[in-house]
Write a structure and sequence with these properties.
The chain is an alpha/beta fold. Helix content is 19%, strand content 25%. It has 6 helices and 15 strands. It has helices at 19-23, 67-81, 150-154, 157-169, 193-196, 220-230, and strands at residues 26-27, 38-43, 88-92, 99-101, 106-109, 113-116, 122-127, 131-137, 142-148, 177-180, 190-192, 204-206, 215-218, 238-240, 265-271. The protein has a 6-stranded mixed beta sheet with strand order 1-2-15-7-3-5, with no helix packed on it. It has a 6-stranded mixed beta sheet with strand order 4-6-9-8-10-14. A hairpin with an 8-residue loop joins strand 12 (204-206) and strand 13 (215-218).
Length: 277
């Protein structure tokens, strides 16, 4: 089976994680580091002011956390990443496949993928088990951010997003880079037969712990890796997070692990004004 975690940062476990990573507010994908002016990251749960189930860098407004704390957490993350919070593009995600062509900042409704070629716009995807996928076209300085839960993944949202970038920006997939961020790993993602059968063979396997029930372990990271390949992005241009939102509780929120009461991470991408390479 393909390994979507190749070209990723070195995997760690709770026992081997460095003290610095435990306090970092975000992780920067290695694949995007060579592009000066490009800001791309996935936040962790560390370095904020929220407490309890939302401890500590909760960035999700509709989570039950105090809105003023979420706002302060957003300010902290933006200050750390040198981002103007007024340049963020967000959406109320609905687990669909609608794509927003973002031309100005703001909070939109009903989009699960965002694309832009405008500078000083930072596309934001919020997750707590679903997979964030970030895409960058260095020739046209265009970016894409995708919220890929099981419904969006079953609907081919990654493929549709890259198609939209081709049409809008003349992006060439073979020149694009992509990062599959942290989500729920297949070891932790048990689903029923009706969900598993939405995906191609090889994307799931029978759960070994459910001898008398039809339960399957679904590999959404692999699903989205295959969609990136099918879109024309070469394997060498794809990086995947080695972490799991369920397993690595010291770094990430998880809706499933925490039974729905938890915070949200953000994955974002955008190009700073005057910093084109």
């Amino acid at each position: 089976m393909e390994n979507p975690a190749k070209n990723s940062i070195t995997p760690t476990t709770p026992n081997s994680v460095t003290s610095s990573l435990r306090t970092e507010r975000y992780i920067v994908p290695d694949c995007f580091r060579p592009y000066h002016g490009l800001i791309a990251l996935q936040s962790t749960r560390n370095g904020g002011i929220s407490d309890g189930a939302f401890s500590s860098l909760n960035l999700g407004i509709n989570t039950g956390d105090l809105e003023e704390r979420v706002h302060k957490n957003i300010m902290r993350l933006c200050a750390s990443a040198d981002i103007n919070p007024e340049c963020m593009v967000t959406s109320r995600q609905v687990h669909g496949t609608e794509i927003l062509l973002a031309e100005k900042p703001g909070n939109y409704d009903g989009y699960d993928a965002l694309i832009t070629d405008k500078k000083n716009l930072f596309l934001c995807i919020f997750t707590a088990d679903c997979y964030p996928v970030l895409i960058y076209d260095p020739r046209h300085h265009a970016s894409g951010a995708v919220h890929a839960g099981w419904k969006g993944s079953a609907g081919g949202i990654v493929i549709k997003t890259i198609d939209a970038m081709k049409k809008r920006f003349n992006s060439l997939p073979e020149e694009c880079l992509a990062y599959i961020g942290t989500g729920i790993s297949h070891e932790a993602y048990e689903v029923g037969r009706e969900v598993a059968q939405e995906f191609p063979a090889g994307s799931y396997q029978r759960s070994p712990d459910r001898n008398n029930e039809e339960k399957y372990l679904l590999n959404l990271a692999l699903v989205n890796y295959r969609q990136l390949l099918a879109s024309g992005i070469p394997p060498s241009n794809i990086e995947s997070s080695p972490f799991c939102s369920v397993r690595d509780s010291y770094l990430f929120f998880s809706h499933r692990r925490d039974q729905g009461k938890t915070g949200r991470m953000v994955s974002l991408i955008g190009v700073n004004q005057g910093e084109r390479t």
